[in-house]
Amino acid sequence: MIWLTWRQFRGSAVLTAAVVAVGAAVLALTGPGLADRYARGVAACVTDGTCDRFFDRFFDEYQLLFVLVGFALLALPAFLGLFWGAPLITRELETGTHLLVWSQGVSRVRWLAVKLGLIGLVAVVMACVAGLVVTWWSRPLDGSAVPELAQMTPVVFGARGVVPMGYAAFAFVLGVTVGMLVRRTLPAMVLTLVVFAAVQVAMPTLVRPHFTAPVTTAHELGIVNVGGLHVRQGGGEVRIAVQAAVPGEGGAWVLSSTLLDPSGRTVAADGQDAPVAVSGTSGPCSPQGSRAGLDPCWTELNRLGYRQQAVYHPIARFWPFQWIETGIYAVLTLGLTWLSFWLIRRRLS
Amino acid sequence: MTPVLEARQLGKRYGRRWALRDCTLEIPKGHVTGLVGPNGAGKTTLLKLAAGQLTPSEGDLRVLGERPGTTLPKVGFVAQDTPVYAGLTVQDHLTLGAKLNTAWDARLAEDRVAELGLNPNQKARRLSGGERAQLALTLGLAKRPELLILDEPVASLDPLARREFLQALMEATAADEFGVVLSSHLIADLERVCDFIVVLVDSRVLVAGEVDELLATHHRLTGPRRDQDRLPSDQYVVSARHTDRQSTYVVRTGEPILDPAWVVTPLTLEDLVLAYMERRPVAGRRAGLEVLR
């Protein structure tokens, strides 16, 4: 049975493995150089305190590659579900070969067990290798990323660490199960993609924020957490907006970032701005007064009592969250596996 | 002796549609059985049930005295259109058979492939329909089954390939003692190889028996017009046709026909089967159409 599974599967296995290997090789070759540049840059910037600017420049340079690598890793499990999972049973059903193989001396339960076990294992191993290589390669970039692409944010979190293993196992078994229900390859692939994408969206929006209670703290305003400062033409009202970043908490996943006025009321919700009681015609926050930099303006605002209130998951929760999420996907995978065995005994022709 | 196949009120339902219903049948051991019936009669469903590929929705089914499903190693099954893996070579198929069956006869398989002149390294997708069917038959035979089930194995073959396939099947059954059940909607195919015949129409077994015995006990009577109730009671009417002056009956009887008014002609197997198929009641036909839909 193992022989047959491998004989049928080896073509696509070798092809996918080759693509993953080439990707891993490219990252393995470029990774040390990247880390080296980062280390030298950090060593240089700490002496004169220009690290923020170095991070921006460094990340800017590699942002496209960073995003592409992340998306490739996010796409890998979906690819495995679509092209390994969905056709596994439907192709047999469409060509009628299930009747050939199921009338040999091996029960169809064992047939499915070997198929799921072997191909599932290859899928998980592939995702594991890809996940760890990408995590290692992108470490310098994760250290310098803009807040929108911080390591804990949903898009990046899913393309790091061990969760790709969980995604791959889940997507593969999902494809197989959907294939058994739909019985035709193309609709099964489409449905697999839709369901997998829905789960992938639902997880970070509905489930992951509640793994543990997020941290809620108030922070002084500064260059890190203020996203915009607008002074109306010719002076007058000053409006500021806070952004989804927390000072001293690089890599954090900010769920909400709001502006509090001196009495502690929320005056600007996420992504909105609000007027603050400083002068726009003179003083540290006016166009003339801020020529030397905005630091005096932040000081003035903080003295008045304006604060950012941030709700976030700090980077320290990265690995716990990775394991929790991998565990959830493992449970989902087991559930689908059980369903697929039930289907092959009860429902399938 | 346990029959190779024994069905009682057997039924299979897909959703609300019955593919087979109320089917009662017994096929004794030691025969090459032909299962014949129109399309949609439930032949494929019955054979899939017997091969353990489906589970019955109702009724009872025994194959070789056991429930199908537990009989997997003892029952060979060649499905409709004789499916094989397009991407695998002939040799791969033999390896598949060897790896997946305990009683695999590698010698028989290799000899047959050599005899057929198949190139072991050829991909199955490049085989002709006849060669594909022969390969599927080889897999079924080399498994050394006690019962080999074939579902319309020759339906899609040209006449020559059809004859070669049936020839190969006959040779195999002559050499070894195992039961065969094969279905076809063409009686001529079955006539050549079968010594037991089952006529299945709308899930119902209209007649089942040894071919020789059936042919010996069925007669066509042609003569002056006569009503059915005036026939002797030992003559079971299978079909009747009347013109103004003439009546034609197909009857079944174990007794000799002595009435000199009749011209008695023997039936071919095809005539016999068609006589039974014609006979199905109008209500039954309607139900049959519904089943088809």
TrEMBL record, chain A:
Keywords, comma-separated and alphabetical: Membrane, Transmembrane, Transmembrane helix
What name is this protein filed under? Answer: ABC transporter permease subunit
Work out whether the entry's keyword set contains Transmembrane helix.
Answer: yes
Q: Which residues cross the membrane?
A: 64-90, 111-137, 157-181, 188-207, 327-344
TrEMBL record, chain B:
The highest taxon in the source lineage is Bacteria
Query: Which stretch is the leader sequence?
Result: none
Q: Which GO terms describe its molecular function?
A: ATP binding; ATP hydrolysis activity
- Which PROSITE patterns did the record assign? ABC_TRANSPORTER_2
Keywords per UniProt: ATP-binding, Nucleotide-binding, Transport
Concerning CDD domains, the annotation shows:
ABC_DR_subfamily_A (cd03230)
Show where the ABC transporter domain sits. Answer: 5-227
Q: Which SUPFAM superfamilies match?
A: P-loop containing nucleoside triphosphate hydrolases
Q: What is this protein called?
A: ATP-binding cassette domain-containing protein
Origin species, per record, is: Herbidospora solisilvae
